[in-house]
Amino acid sequence: MSEAIIEIEQVVFSYVREEGGENIPALDGVDLEILEGSFVAVIGPNGSGKSTLAKCFNALLLPEKGRVRVRGMDTGDDERVWDIRKTVGMVFQNPDNQLVSSIVEDDVAFGPENLGVEPAEIRERVDAALRSVDMYEHRKKGPHLLSGGQKQRIAIAGVLAMESECIVLDEPTAMLDPSGRREVMEIIRRLHARGKTIVLITHFMEEAAQADRIVVMEKGRIAFDGTPGELFTHSGDLQDLDMPFAVQLAARLRKRGIDVPKDAISEMDLVEFLCASK
Ligand SMILES: Nc1ncnc2c1ncn2[C@@H]1O[C@H](COP(=O)(O)OP(=O)(O)OP(=O)(O)O)[C@@H](O)[C@H]1O
Ligand SMILES: [Mg+2]
């Protein structure tokens, strides 16, 4: 059994309205464990609490009730905040808001510098991180010369250089074109294959389908938690989900009497099944 990196227990959170009046509820009793080495996608409608939940993972927000532990460290413990942020690295949606330096490699070095890592080790980590996201050859460039997908890969390299065990990505592909999206997903899959724990918040079902577990948020609660196969064959009590193309096609084929297996959720699964059947 894998161990949990992140443990969320009965977490409640609401935003305080500055102009007074009632608080805005965002999380309403969330229980969740993120296991070491897993790839979890978090989906759900706008305002369902996905980003708020992600910010609770590394003490950017502290729960009003309940608790969040990262490798056993309580996010409310002031003395552990840096250890927690080092363990769980975050990548956000807007590629332009995340890069702080005028040279790519300085940007990737920023995290480990703040952690007080020795310069020689920083050099090694930065080079390794840039290679992991296929951006080593661009290390001397200014971030403004990069595409959105490349910028997000640099943001991911920044997290890798801190040696974070878990990477939480909040809609990292939302502002990218299709090729940028593919690049970033390719890197995410690669990091997962190498053992990193991944939490990917996304609006794209095709991306969520690549995870080994999908959590669906609805109104500050978890409405579903299971494998992609289970979600895509789940009866319709979840709000309308925009199913991946392969899942829609499989459903139509079933209506025509073709007995497509329930775990066929990608184009490749369908191709294999259809080619194998007579
Ligand atoms: N900084 C904030 N101040 C006040 N209310 C907020 C703030 N951020 C989020 N909210 C509210 O909290 C609730 C949950 O928002 P959250 O951003 O976590 O949802 P989300 O699932 O990430 O949505 P989206 O898909 O649009 O990114 C919503 O009602 C939202 O309006
Ligand atoms: Mg969000």
Model description:
- The protein has 278 residues and is an alpha/beta fold.
- The chain has a domain at 244-278.
- It has helices at residues 50-57, 81-87, 104-114, 119-132, 148-161, 178-193, 205-208, 228-232, 245-255, 267-276; strands at residues 4-15, 24-35, 39-43, 65-70, 73-74, 88-91, 166-170, 197-201, 213-218, 221-226.
- Helix 3 crosses helix 4 (119-132).
- The longest helix is centred in the last third of the chain and has 16 residues, at 178-193.
- Adenosine-5'-triphosphate (ATP) binds at residues 15, 24, 26, 44, 46-52.
- Adenosine-5'-triphosphate binds at residues 15, 24, 26, 44, 46-52.
Strand percent estimate: 15-25%
Work out the helicity level: 25-40%
Largest sheet: 6 strands, mixed
Structural class: alpha/beta
Pattern of helices and strands: EEEHEEHEHHHEHEHEEHHH
List the strand order in the largest sheet. Answer: 6-7-8-3-9-10
Unreliable runs: none
Mean pLDDT: 92
| Rg over alpha carbons | 20 Å
Q: List the quaternary state of the chains.
A: single chain
Question: What descriptive keywords fit this protein?
Answer:
single chain, 278 residues, alpha/beta, 6-stranded mixed β-sheet, 4-stranded antiparallel β-sheet, 10 helices, 10 strands, globular, binds adenosine-5'-triphosphate, binds magnesium ion
